[in-house]
Amino acid sequence: MLKKFKTLNQFFHPESNQISMDFTPFVTTVGNNRLQVMLASDENIPDLLVLEKEVYSGQTPWSSFSFKTELRKRKNSLYLFVYEASTLVAFIGARFHPREAHITNIAVVPKYQGQHIGHMLLELMIERARQNNCECVSLEVRIDNDRAKRLYSELGFEATFVRKNYYQDTHTDAVNMVLWLKPHRIRKRKFTL
């Protein structure tokens, strides 16, 4: 039977499980904003650290080193930056595996929040998960971030459980949320935010 496959790797990791991380930059209009959506690179990290400080009240939850490490994981990670002219206004990052896509980070500068930019970025990653035949998309969100939880719920994410002290710097809990793209057999438990 193994003779049918060119390599054992094909047998254990068939092409249907291969993840596509190709991305073509594009320009779009969201609200009144003409935005450039592009693949993140190391050159953008200084802009990203400025964005983090603006979003997280002067803090940078992820360091330059953390972002550089993530950006090098090109086989299964996709990080996108959104610029209006020369200003970074948002970004999103996700890791893709054969069965699951996990949103690692998303942020929109406060001035641009509520303009559907975060929604657009999440839809891009959800569509990428579908293209890669993932069963679900997951993420964590601060338990007190009601605005983000509403956005995720609007997109179909469901709260599954709480991760105690997930955000170590503030000892804040996180809610794990999942968007199922395919039917699943997990018994649903009642969980409210």
Automatic annotation (TrEMBL):
<dbReference type="InterPro" id="IPR000182">
    <property type="entry name" value="GNAT_dom"/>
</dbReference>
<dbReference type="Pfam" id="PF00583">
    <property type="entry name" value="Acetyltransf_1"/>
</dbReference>
<dbReference type="InterPro" id="IPR050680">
    <property type="entry name" value="YpeA/RimI_acetyltransf"/>
</dbReference>
<comment type="similarity">
    <text>Belongs to the acetyltransferase family. RimI subfamily.</text>
</comment>
<keyword id="KW-0963">Cytoplasm</keyword>
<dbReference type="InterPro" id="IPR016181">
    <property type="entry name" value="Acyl_CoA_acyltransferase"/>
</dbReference>
<keyword id="KW-0012">Acyltransferase</keyword>
<keyword id="KW-0808">Transferase</keyword>
<protein>
    <submittedName>
        <fullName>Ribosomal-protein-alanine acetyltransferase</fullName>
        <ecNumber>2.3.1.128</ecNumber>
    </submittedName>
</protein>
<dbReference type="InterPro" id="IPR006464">
    <property type="entry name" value="AcTrfase_RimI/Ard1"/>
</dbReference>
<feature type="domain" description="N-acetyltransferase">
    <location>
        <begin position="35"/>
        <end position="182"/>
    </location>
</feature>
<dbReference type="GO" id="GO:0008080">
    <property type="term" value="F:N-acetyltransferase activity"/>
</dbReference>
